[in-house]
Amino acid sequence: MNRFRSIISRVVALHVVAIGVTSILMPLALYWLLNEAANSLHRDALRAQALTIASFMRPTATGDLTLEIPPEAEPIYSGGYGLYAYAILDSKGRVLFTSRGDDLPLSVVGEPLTNDSFSRRRRNGTVLIGVNVPRAIGDHLYWIQVGQDLAHRDVIIDDIVASFLPRVAWITFPILLVLLLIDIVIFRRALDPVRQASDTAASIGPTSTDVRLSEQSMPAEIVPLVHAVNEALDRLEAGYRAQREFTADMAHELRTPLAIMRARVDSLEDAAMRQSLQNDIVNMTRTVNQVLDIAELEAFVVDGGSKADLQAVCADAVAFMAPLAVNDGKTIALTGAETPVWVRGHAEALFRAVRNLIENAIRHSPTGGTVEVDVAADGTVLVLDEGPGVPLSERETIFKRFWRRDRSRPESRGLGLAIVTRVAAAHDGTITVEDRPQGGSVFTLRLRLA
């Protein structure tokens, strides 16, 4: 079986099958064409002889008909050794002249003379084939029958060979076209494993770094390349995992120093300095937590059978963020569905996404503004704010990591919406943003119902 893993061996093997089938069909087609060419030439020769005999027919003064065959032509039609046999019939089918000794027509008695050609088996087993050619002389119509015993057909072999090539040459192109189509099918079949490997490679991403290309069904010539690609993917996965683990470890390690710094800052006597440092530590702690969330979500995969109550997730997120909204002088409201909305997904991850959307809306809404979280029964969450809105040119870039419109603001690191994007992608969902007609933005998180 290993010998047929090579593309060349597969192509050769399939070509052998194709040639075998073609070697059977082509002789049959050529035999049919050759037979048709021979019959056509034979009929043309018989018609020519009928016209020759017609030239020997002469009308008489009494209205009868005479046949004057030159002596040098008589051997062609003489007895059982002649190459041709003839019979001349009147319009009623009566035999007027014949080279036969029984005064019978060459065709079967009673067969219509209007038939262009005929064939009849003789008593000795041979087959007589012939043609019927009408000829008008004066006011009378006569039928000239010329036949030939198939035993004499070898005399037209030269004509058949001479005319065979131009008659059959046209079939060369269709045969080559068929062989080309067969080659296409053969190569497609032989390269199926390569296309499957391409599809597998296209599915490899940040959440599926463990996927590898199969080497089992791969052609022998491609196996070294596939093996090298798999080894490269192993190295990339190791580096990607090390980077992700480093980010997570750093985020974890920074939490303890930040907690110690906060405890020491709380003991400072200078109130202005203490408040400023406390704000800086809060922002640093928030950034560290977001980096940790990003690191965890990079390897996050939603189980196909998991589901979450989206209405409950949004209610928890609103309750969690309500103190921050009240502290900033803003209000927050939960609207929409009041009954469970089950979606395919992970409740904790969805909570992080909705929380970051709400935090983003609170940060950009003016004092006294309202943040609204609307949950729809189709698995859609709308987070509406009364901020300045998002320009059309920034509606794609705001979801990228560390993107910030105003980098002078210390409380934003551009990670919140990136977390939302990663959660939506892990759930086969989408996140979009549009401006509200009355001012502000509306972020739409669409999820699949369970």
Automatic annotation (TrEMBL):
How does the UniProt record describe the way this protein sits in the membrane?
Answer: Multi-pass membrane protein
Where do transmembrane segments lie in this chain?
A: 12-34, 168-187
One GO MF term on file is: kinase activity
Its main subcellular localisation, reduced to a broad class, is: membrane
Q: Which residues form a coiled coil?
A: none
Reaction(s) the record says it catalyses: ATP + protein L-histidine = ADP + protein N-phospho-L-histidine
PROSITE patterns linked = HAMP, HIS_KIN
Q: Which residues form the HAMP domain?
A: 188-241
**Key word Transmembrane helix present:** yes
Gene3D superfamilies with a match to the protein in the record: 1.10.287.130, Histidine kinase-like ATPase, C-terminal domain
Instruction: From the Swiss-Prot or TrEMBL record, give the protein name.
Output: histidine kinase
